[in-house]
Every structure is written in C-alpha cells, then in structure tokens.
TrEMBL record:
This protein's record includes keyword GTP-binding: no
Class of enzymatic activity (EC top level): oxidoreductase
Cofactor(s) listed: Mg(2+); Mn(2+)
UniProtKB keywords: Amino-acid biosynthesis, Branched-chain amino acid biosynthesis, Leucine biosynthesis, Magnesium, Manganese, Metal-binding, NAD, Oxidoreductase
The protein's name in its UniProt record: 3-isopropylmalate dehydrogenase
Domain Isopropylmalate dehydrogenase-like as annotated: residue spans: 9-357
InterPro entries assigned to the protein according to its UniProt record, in alphabetical order: ICDH/IPMDH (IPR050501), IsoCit/isopropylmalate_DH_CS (IPR019818), IsoPropMal-DH-like_dom (IPR024084)
Xref: SMART domains: Iso_dh
Amino acid sequence: MPLPSNTLRIAVMPGDGIGTEVTAATLAVLEPLAKRHGIGLAFEELRAGAFCYRDTGTAMSEETFEKAAKADAILLGAMGWPEIRTPDGTEIAPQLDLRFRLGLYAGVRPFRALPGVPLALADPRAREIDFVILRESTEGLFFSRGRGTVTEDMAEETLRITRPTTERLARFSFGLARRRAARRGRKGTVTLVDKANVFRAFAFMRGIFAEVAAGFPDVAHGTHYVDAMALDLVRRPWAFDVLPTENMFGDILSDLGAGLVGGMGFAPSADIGDTHAVFQPAHGTAPDIAGKGIANPTATILSAAMMLDWLAERGAGQGFADAAAELEGAVDAAFADGLRTADIGGGDGTAAAAKAVARRIGAAG
Ligand code: ATP
Ligand code: MG
C-alpha cells in the first residue's frame, strides 16, 4: 500500500530495558491511529544505548546520529543499564548527547491527573492537576557535566545561564501558555522557578523573562523560589500552569510532579529545540522490572501524542493534531474504564495496556 503523501519519517530508538517494551507498545497504538486519521508515519528503528555500546563499542554511532537528525521527529524509549559503563565508570547516556548536539533546550514535562488513576494527594482538587514543567536542558548546572574540577580538598561545578537560551526558553514558555490557554479556555500563567534571592544568575534570568513577557500581555507572569515551589507543588499543584526553570531544578521537580500523578509511568516528556525534537518517557530503563512485561507504557504513549502535536504545529497538517487529541482521549478513556497497570497496583501488563488504548481509538468517532 502506498504511504499517504503527508508521510513523515520517525526515527525510533527503543534503547534498553523497559525502553524496548514501552516503545513496542506505543508503536502498536500509533499504527491504527495513523491509519484512522490518514496520516503517514514511516518508522525507522535505530539501535543505540547501553547494550549497543556493549555489543559494538559505541553507544550511538555517528551514522545512527545522522539518521536520527534527518528524521522529522525522534521517538525514544529509555537508555542506560547499571552494569554497562564506560571504562571510567560513567553511565551510558547517548540520549543526553542528543539533547546537547541537537540544541534541545526545552524539556517539556506535562503532568496531568488521568481519570481513575490513584493520586498521592487525597484533596479532590488533585484531579485538576494539569501543569507543565519546562526544564531548560542544555545549560544551567548540567552545563558543568564532565567539566567540573575535583582536587584533593575541593570539588567545583559551574552553573551557566545565557541570554540566547533564556530568551528562547522564555518565548517557548509564553507561547506554550498561550496555546494551552486557547485549549483550556482560561488565561495562561507562566511562573519562572528560580533562586533569585541567592544567585545573581537567576536575577539575570528573571530580567530576561520580564522582557519577553512584555510581548505576551495575554499571559499572566510570575516568579517563585524553587524551595517554595517544592512546598506548593505538594500543597496546591492544581494552581499552576507553565513552570519554566533551570536544568537541575527541573530535573528534581519533574520527579516530584510524576509522584503527584501516579508515578514515572505517567510522566511523558519532549525535548524540543528550534529544528529538532526528541519524545520519550521521563523514566529510565527500570532494570528491576525489565523483561517482565509489566512496564506501564502510558508515559511513552503520551509522549507520542506530544510528538504528533509538535509535528502538527510545524505544519504537518490538522490530521496530526486530531490524531494527538484522539490518542490522549483514548488513554483517558482506557483508565476511566478501569485499566490498571502494575505500577498502580493493577494486573494489566504492557501489552494489555496498549491494547486497551488501541481499542478506544475510533471508539468516540
Ligand atoms: P534514570 O537514571 O534513567 O532516571 P532511574 O534510576 O531514576 O533511571 P527509572 O528507570 O526511572 O530509574 O525507575 C525508577 C523506578 O520507577 C523503578 O523502580 C522502576 O521500576 C519504576 N518505573 C519506571 N518507569 C516505569 C514504568 N514505565 N512502569 C512501571 N514502573 C516504572
Ligand atoms: Mg531518574
């Protein structure tokens, strides 16, 4: 059968551990979805990660990188494995190199309470949790990765905030808040999370956000210290919308966010730059449950929905936006109807979860 004329090429990197399981489950859902919406998705599977390193001596070959960079989007499972390390003991994480090499500065991590999924907070308003952490992913404290100085008596790492990246992150934040506001029918709010009371780098960041905010009068704009935000994300997470922040703060608050909505299996993510984007679950390879067929594929399926949305925004067509919306709706419907994955104490494995979502594609239409 010929592919539809709007066919886009998706590089698929399943990676290691449960990465391969949740990726397979996601492809099993994307295939019927694409067919139903008449959108063309051509998947090219690429090998990279810890086991690739063990078998070939390189975690991601240059050829693989080139292929991934040429694709229209990259869908990734998870990479890394505790026992497989470089000779100096570093973990294998070629997905981090993708972030730096492709300039994927915006780490988009949405947190939403899905119907029926047990939540950490008893307050009924927790059902309204729907916020996005925007983790700057190329500088901040992680800029220091591999560059820190360690002597006998001292270890030092550097935090870097630059104007161009901060401006792009700010514009991305306000643009996202504006699009979410249109969708949700309420005013958007951008809250920069920082530690401007202690570090001048964050006062610098605040200044840039204030400049960019002037161009988005329709979006509310505020700031919050990261320690206070940790408190408030537990006390009233339903009050927040778009939360841009420095790399390390975003890393930490993202796990807190996942904890609020059912765990790592419910936390999708996208790493977006000006020209490329990688979509992957926020979790790792989970060696403790790998190979058992019980990993929750929801985070990866929702990451794929983000991918379809991003492709639509870049001009792939309304079919992609419709498919993204239907995919999210199908995930919601599956859980609302009783899907219970193992991580929330249920008996549904990876394949059963994918099947439950796939069955609901087209069900509403
Ligand atoms: P990384 O360093 O890559 O972030 P990690 O060591 O933080 O990895 P994860 O692999 O994210 O660890 O797993 C953390 C815990 O969450 C593990 O106990 C794992 O079993 C569980 N977990 C992660 N992802 C899922 C999933 N999709 N379904 C079920 N449980 C999961
Ligand atoms: Mg982790």
